Amino acid sequence: MTTPPKTLLLFLGCAALLAGSYLTLQNLKETMETQLADRLTQAVGHISNESLEVRLGGIHALGRIAAVSERDYGPIMHILITYVRERTSIKKGQALKDPPQRLAPDIQAALDVIGRRRHSYQEGERQRLDLRGTDLRRANLAGAKFAGAILSEVHLEEANLAGIHLEDAILRETHLEYANLTEAEMDRTFLLNGRLQGTRLRAADLRGAYLVGARFDEADLLGADLTGAVGLTWDQLKTARKDNKTRLPDYLRLPTRASGAR
């Protein structure tokens, strides 16, 4: 009987090892997917709990799952957006109560997860985040990713929005009075009839923004870039703070003294 060559034995041994490794990896993948599914089910159950601590745990768990599971990413974002809307939506004509010193912890936690997500509109997401008509006064969304979001008629008075990403977002009739939008990225933001009285927009990027009817009374526009903005008038800016670093659209110019004026 002929003894098989050593190379053949080595090849057969490697093939068996690879086949075993593949099956092990497949089993491991299935196990991990099952564990993620169980964690997702548990987290969703927690966010409807009466206990604030349990709800917070569920929200943070959803954030961790979304960070590692592309399959669950979209559904989790939808769950969190729905969670925020159900608890903060304002009915037409509803009078607002005095805002709390800060946003409710569970709402803030959900917004934190949404604002830190891996993707954004048209960069991994096909649908806009929709939070229209919600009460988010005094929220902390500093640095959050809300590019392309629908925030029309949202109340964001006194919110911390420093460095927020609102490129291509829709903020029709949004309340931003006395909010902090320092260094906010607002390229091409749609701000029709936006309420920005007393808003801090220092060094904010508003290039190409749609500003028809927007109110900037007493707003801080020091260093803000409004080049290419659409629908802006000098009347809208007459009481806003500006400096030599404030950049206006080409069709607007800072008023100059009349010839011979002292």
Question: What can be said about this structure in brief?
Answer:
The protein is mainly alpha-helical. It has helices spanning 6-46, 52-68, 70-88, 105-115, 234-237, and strands at residues 120-121, 124-125.
Features of the shown structure:
Pectate Lyase C-like; 5 helices; disordered C terminus; 262 residues; mainly alpha; 2% strand; two-stranded parallel ribbon
Outline the structure in words.
With 262 residues, the chain is mainly alpha-helical. It has one domain: Pectate Lyase C-like, CATH 2.160.20. The protein is 35% helix and 2% strand. It has 5 helices and 2 strands. The protein has a two-stranded parallel ribbon. Helix 3 (70-88) packs antiparallel against helix 4 (105-115). The longest helix is centred in the N-terminal third of the chain and has 41 residues, at 6-46. It is globular. It starts with 5 loop residues before the first helix and ends in a 25-residue tail after the last helix. 34% of the residues are buried.
Strand segment count: 2
What is the N-to-C order of secondary-structure elements (H for helix, E for strand)? Answer: HHHHEEH
Q: What best-fitting shape do the alpha-carbon axes yield?
A: globular
Helical fraction = 25-40%
Describe the oligomeric state of these chains in a short phrase.
single chain
Radius of gyration: 26 Å
Return the domain count.
Answer: 1
Architecture (CATH level 2) name = 3 Solenoid
Average pLDDT reading? 88
Give a quick account of the main beta sheet: strands, pairing sense, barrel closure.
2 strands, parallel
Distance between the termini: 115 Å
Would you give the CATH topology?
Pectate Lyase C-like
CATH class: Mainly Beta
SS class: mainly alpha
Q: Quickly count the helices.
A: 5
Q: Beta-strand level of the residues, as a percent range?
A: under 5%
